[in-house]
Amino acid sequence: MTMWIGEQEIEDLAIGAALLGTGGGGDPYLGKLMVQKAIRKNGPIKMIDPTEVPDDELVIPTAMMGAPTIMVEKIPNGDESLKSLQLVEEQLGKKAYATMPIECGGLNSTIPFVVASELGIPVVDGDGMGRAFPELNMETFNIYGVNGTPMGLYNERGDKCLLTTLDNKMLEHISRGIAIRMGGACHIALYGMSGTDVRRTAIPNTISLCIKLGRAIRQAGEGKQDVIKAIEHITENSIYGKSVVLFQGKVVDVERRSTDGFVRGKAIVEGFDNFEGEELVVEFQNENLVAKVDDHTIAIVPDLISFLDLETGSPITTEGLRYGFRVTCIGIPTPDIMRSEKALQVWGPRDFGYDMEYQKIEEIYDTRREKV
Amino acid sequence: MIYKIGIDVGGTNTDAVILDEDNNVIESKKTPTTLDVETGIFNALEGVLSKTDINFHHIKSVMLGTTHATNAIIERKNLAKIAVLRICLPAGQSIEPMFSWDESLKEAVGNQYYLLHGGCEFDGRPLHQKGLIKEECVSVLNEIKETGIESIAITSIFSPVLEDYEKELADMAKEILGEDFPVSLSCEIGNLGLLERESSAALNASLVKVIKKVSYGLERSLERYGIQAKIFFAQNDGTLMSLNYAQKYPILTIGSGPTNSIRGAAYLSGLEDCIVCDIGGTSTDIGILVKGFPRQSSLAVDIESVRTNFRMPDIISIGIGGGSIVRVKEDGEVTVGPDSVGYNIMTESIAFGGDTLTATDCLLASGLVTIDSPTCDPNRLQSLNQKTVKKAISVITEKVSVSVDKIKTKNDPLPVVLVGGGSILIPGDIEGASKVIRPNYSDCANAIGAAIAQVSGEIDKIYSFEGRTREDVVAEAKEQVKQHTIEAGANSDTVEIIDFEEVPIAYLPSNVIRIKAKAAGELLKSTLEVTNV
């Protein structure tokens, strides 16, 4: 279904993207401003359903890579992603029919809208991560056989790089090095693919889902509805599954350390109300990865684990998490496309260094409930 | 003996205190804040000076915490016409300066800006070339000279890492616009985050006329009493700046009120690490003091729709105060606040002959507290249901306890200092508090906070480990921040690091780290003796 994205939709998208960012993904604030400026100049932006892309037309996803901390200081010119997309177009000898996010969580949910507005092309409502992940090979596009290259990298100075690699693991490895040399952050276009491949490999309707979630959280903040129930209702009617309340309590400790571009650590939450006497531990590496209650694992990556402010329902990033916060920890089951054997080889718990098997969040939840 | 005066202008009251050199309170006075602010300051000064017999020549310093800057921004009054110069090309064009500002505020300051070549990467490598393009800068500055701009703000990409570009442009501005032309540098105000730091600098540039007016008014008032004292302004972080510095960086006065209140309360209780709970008529502000300074919020702060990266004290405000309205719902549930009879408590609450049930009424009815006032008669509360009273008190205690706990960073109990007119609402203990302290003079804690403030210095930079150890980097950062503090007027023997934070940088695998640090020290005595003619 075609949707027109105006300033309010982008506000809501930024909130929803913070929720699906599962604690990471970078603050969407700057991206939001860039899109709002584009909308003021060019009018609302067209967002189309994956089914609306003709089979043979080309879709080129766009994003930023590197450290969001750098981008909020060295703010872009606004045309870098577009230029990186044009690099890929040139190499392929074909114009893009549309662009698409590679990641619906955090900052990268917004970048393609800037490109779309300037080029007058639509954004495809879908992405390749279904949340936020730290590496460019962690994409359903990669998992289901789309070649990530030719990849265009472009920085604000106009330095550019066209990258071709034999596989997408190498794409991640080499481009990360280039991003650092480009000043710690750059803009990219990659995983150019046909309409057929979009339908085969993309996680559909994740951006409209972000907008719905963001709107629900905003309206809950205005006292119009119960945020947890609204999120349950929205996720239940999406390709994700019905969200579950994993825990409610008070953050009593947050431990963080930085290694190799990852902020690793854990948050400990002391339960209250229905969770009185229990303790939740959430381990993160930029994003939240594993949740345990009293040493029993209750949610595992790639399922989504997010913290919400208990009162307002606003998503809280791992960076913003602090002692004393009253939080609801919610879990959202990922769509089946993200849970296949192939997918779990790319973003299963073992890929983040955990010696454990993936278990579906809703199954753990049901077993736990039966015990109670 | 030499003396000092602390003045705090709050939303409701303007307070003044006189302290001796050992920080003993000699006199205090509370007067209503006036619309023009100056009159209120003068009244408070007059109030406190008329009560004392000390020799006015022995008053050597005056510390002022004021809301002038905030009011000017809110009311769009007395703001200077500014130009914002962003040194960013070939980057930084996507969002122009002041983009997200409210239209009326943009209009009030003129909404004029220029983008120039320069700035650097996170590791100091130049974005364009080393140094600025002279001709480009000269032509922009000449244009500014001709358009009647009153003040300029300069920002440059990664200026918290390398200030050179901003400083170079500031020097050129002096040559072309004149030695005294107000120039605000973003590197001296804000932290990483270009848009927020730039907005802080731009707001600052717009406030230069406001602060001139305040200092002029204060100097005139002091002259009338023959007081020759050095004037200081309180900053949002609980430290002082000289009159000169305040004229350059007036934005730093914003948010000084709550900070002064927290520091003053803690001083009165003799504690350096504690939680301060300031209970007023309508709301309760809860803050935390770590090593004598209020912990600052890590969140972006909005000043009138403008997102800044200004560091404000971390304050939790809840809608509980002496005048909070108490209601009983149909199901028997009792609610307290968030609405309040506010300053009309002496007429509207039941114990004072009114007909609104307030939090204060419930405390009086419980018999736990008494109020010594001719118009207060607890007998008016006899018909009150004791169950309701008990429930209301437990709601109040619970809400305050939860917020006290929220503001902590660790589970260990901390002492809680209770101040403010509404502090009778908490007659007993607070959960999670090691003890509850109710100090004397607590009604003018904020003016005392201004008077006892120290001077500080700050850094927020990204450092590279390339070719050196972590210890070297940390030592360099600590040395830099101490040097900043001494430059701000601190006695070097008393300078201490009060905040040191290593912030990891996400999604960037290389040997860099961001360090935020702050140091503070006692005001150098010789700074005061200079005026001792």
UniProtKB/TrEMBL annotation, chain A:
Pfam families referenced in this protein's UniProt entry, alphabetically: S-Me-THD_C, S-Me-THD_N
Domain named S-Me-THD-like C-terminal: residues: 167-360
Top-level taxon: Bacteria
Coiled-coil intervals: none
Domain called S-Me-THD N-terminal: residue spans: 8-164
SUPFAM superfamilies on file: CV3147-like
Name of the protein in question: DUF917 family protein
Species this chain originates from: Aquibacillus albus
UniProtKB/TrEMBL annotation, chain B:
Pfam families: Hydant_A_N, Hydantoinase_A
InterPro entries named in the record: ATPase_NBD, Hydant_A_N, Hydantoinase_A, Oxoprolinase-like
Domain Hydantoinase A/oxoprolinase residue range list: 197-407
Span of domain Hydantoinase/oxoprolinase N-terminal: 4-176
Protein name: N-methylhydantoinase A/oxoprolinase/acetone carboxylase beta subunit
Taxonomic placement: Bacteria, Bacillati, Bacillota, Bacilli, Bacillales
